[in-house]
TrEMBL record:
It comes from Streptomyces africanus. GO terms for molecular function: succinyl-CoA:3-oxo-acid CoA-transferase activity. This is 3-oxoacid CoA-transferase subunit A. Belongs to the 3-oxoacid CoA-transferase subunit A family. The keyword Transmembrane helix does not apply. The lineage of its organism: Bacteria, Bacillati, Actinomycetota, Actinomycetes, Kitasatosporales. Pfam families: CoA_trans. Its EC number is 2.8.3.5. Coiled coil: none annotated. Keywords: Transferase. InterPro entries: 3-oxoacid_CoA-transf_A, CoA_trans_fam_I, CoA_transf_BS, NagB/RpiA_transferase-like.
Length: 251
């Protein structure tokens, strides 16, 4: 039951080239930077990543992206990541952009054993009708476009069929975790981390504070340990390393 590993390299030692990864985080919040750094150090490449975004400010998944280690991204947001946009438009990267709420539910559904579900998000758009550019040819044309999806009517309204997502591995970051893998997430870091953790067949969690089993109130657990295979305790310095993407202050 003790799922704690000694180092980040040990935690990701069996992640192979070409693996699919669900990665938690929202912007710069709740990103498993230490585990991502270990993947970079190991030289793992050809990764298919499922995450809300692909890193920013040269942190998070942006580290792997800039090194050419990511082959495909399923996400919702490119934002100010200029290298992400460059690789996508140059045809170096395959990108499936989907509505953010749909991404969240696809991860949750995959983790809950639900193969597919119907949602109104995307009906009447290229999300349902197909034709969204997944990969450009580097010359302004589309090399691979999204396929059309099944649309079905329920009670007079149309809904599009979306598939649940399962990945080989998941990397997440929690504010607190115990040796059994029970996790607690802090504030906005709770947006995608629990869902990514559910979707991974092997889920690895880096935790800012490691506690003993029983020290977390069962009612306070956001993700039960049944979903988590390995736990990495961060050093105080690693836990405190939290960057801010948009700093705003009040007068």
């Amino acid at each position: 039951m003790d799922k704690v590993v000694a180092t980040a390299l040990e935690a990701v030692a069996d992640v192979p080239d070409g693996a699919s990864l669900a990665v938690g985080g929202f912007g710069l919040s709740g990103v498993p930077n230490v585990l991502i750094g270990a993947l970079y150090e190991r030289g793992v490449a050809g990764l298919s990543v499922v995450s809300n975004n692909c890193g920013a400010m040269e942190t998070g998944l942006a580290v792997l992206l800039a090194a050419g280690r990511i082959a495909r991204v399923t996400g919702s947001y490119i934002g100010a990541n200029k290298e992400f946009a460059r690789q996508y438009l140059a045809g170096e990267l395959e990108v499936e952009l989907i509505p953010q709420g749909t991404l969240a539910e696809r991860l949750r559904a995959g983790g809950a054993g639900i193969p597919a579900f119907y949602t109104p998000a995307g009906v009447g758009t290229q999300v349902a009708e197909g034709g969204l550019p997944w990969r450009y040819d580097g010359q302004g044309g589309v090399a691979i476009a999204s396929p059309a999806k099944e649309v079905r009517e329920f009670d007079g309204a149309e809904y599009v069929l979306e598939r649940g997502i399962r990945t080989d591995f998941a990397l997440v970051r929690a504010a607190k975790g115990d040796r059994h893998g029970n996790l607690v997430f802090g504030k906005s870091a709770r947006n995608f981390n629990p869902l990514a953790a559910m979707a991974g067949r092997v889920t690895i969690a880096e935790v800012e504070e490691l506690v003993e089993p029983g020290e977390i109130d069962p009612d306070a657990v956001h993700l039960p340990g049944i979903f988590v295979r390995r736990v990495l305790a961060l050093t105080p310095e690693q836990a405190a390393d939290k960057k801010i993407e948009q700093r705003t202050v009040r007068s």
